[in-house]
Design a protein that fits this description.
- The protein is an alpha/beta fold.
- It is built from seven helices and 14 strands.
- Strands 1-2-3-4-5-6-14 form a seven-stranded mixed beta sheet, covered by helices on one side.
- Strand 11 and strand 12 form a beta hairpin.
- Helix 6 packs antiparallel against helix 7.
- It is globular.
- The two termini are 23 Å apart.
- 49% of the residues are buried.
């Protein structure tokens, strides 16, 4: 087994929005940033000594525009197939995140007014459709993709055999990464309780570090303490009938991509 190195690729600001380069026997990318950031991502990949055309796979963690915005562009620039979960096919095929966004707090309510979050990205069709857990050994990485629904229905995370969890928006640093090391919700969740359940399931696997879409890596012990307090907060909201959850409609169009065998 070869050691997997997790390299952050800042897309917006120093760590406000991150993609990740995972280096094992072969490189893969996790997440595709905002629309128009494909060149920025591949330039950083090259700066780490990796030819972008050697990237074997692009994994999109979920259907928000700051994570899938440049997926189609990265596919053209690298030639790598895109893997994404079937439950978020709607946003990928339309280029638009599901709306309205459901804020997790004041930051989300403020960000929901940002016109950039309501822009249309270039649509794409995933080459590899995910439904359950899938290993990445065939792509040169000792790691697996694990569904972690809640932030969106089709959210996924990548767990390396070394214990690094690339978690998308399962959890974040406070204030979009401005307060380093402090666990917090990202600005939005489609189903906060389901997301918390996914987070606790991932923490039960004893990861060594959580690499998130917004901010610096998080300590799993600190994340677990935060999750306990968040469980109590969500229970209070649910008891008052103030916990908003998105109701999803089934996709009308059947999936065209090849489901991973």
């Amino acid at each position: 087994m070869s050691r997997t190195k997790v390299v952050p690729i800042p897309v917006l600001g120093r760590r406000a929005v991150n993609a990740y380069l995972l280096l094992g026997r072969h490189p893969i990318l996790v997440d595709a940033g905002t629309p128009g950031s494909g060149r920025r991502i591949t330039e950083q990949v090259a700066a780490h000594g990796v030819n972008p055309e050697d990237v074997r796979l692009v994994v999109v963690t979920h259907g928000h525009i700051d994570h899938f915005g440049s997926a189609a562009e990265l596919h053209r620039l690298t030639g790598a197939p895109i893997a994404a979960h079937t439950a978020d096919l709607g946003p990928y095929r339309t280029g638009r995140a599901r709306e309205p966004y459901l804020p997790t707090g004041p930051m989300g309510r403020l960000m929901a007014r940002n016109p950039k979050l309501h822009e249309k990205a270039e649509p794409f069709e995933p080459d590899i459709l995910l439904r359950g857990e899938r290993g990445l050994a065939d792509f040169g990485l000792d790691a697996r993709i694990i569904p972690t629904p809640g932030h969106t229905a089709g959210s996924v995370s990548v767990l390396t055999d070394d214990g690094d969890l690339v978690a998308g928006d399962l959890i974040a640093n406070s204030f979009m990464g401005l307060i380093k090391g402090r666990p917090a919700n990202p600005p939005f969740h489609d189903d906060p309780l389901a997301n918390l359940g996914s987070l606790r399931a991932m923490l039960a696997l004893k990861p060594t570090r959580l690499h998130v879409g917004h901010g610096t890596p998080l300590d799993p012990v600190r994340a677990d303490r935060w999750a306990t307090a968040e469980q109590r907060r969500l229970a209070r909201l649910a008891a008052r009938g103030k916990l908003r959850v998105r109701t999803l409609e089934p996709d009308d169009e059947p999936a065209r991509g090849a489901e991973w065998p």
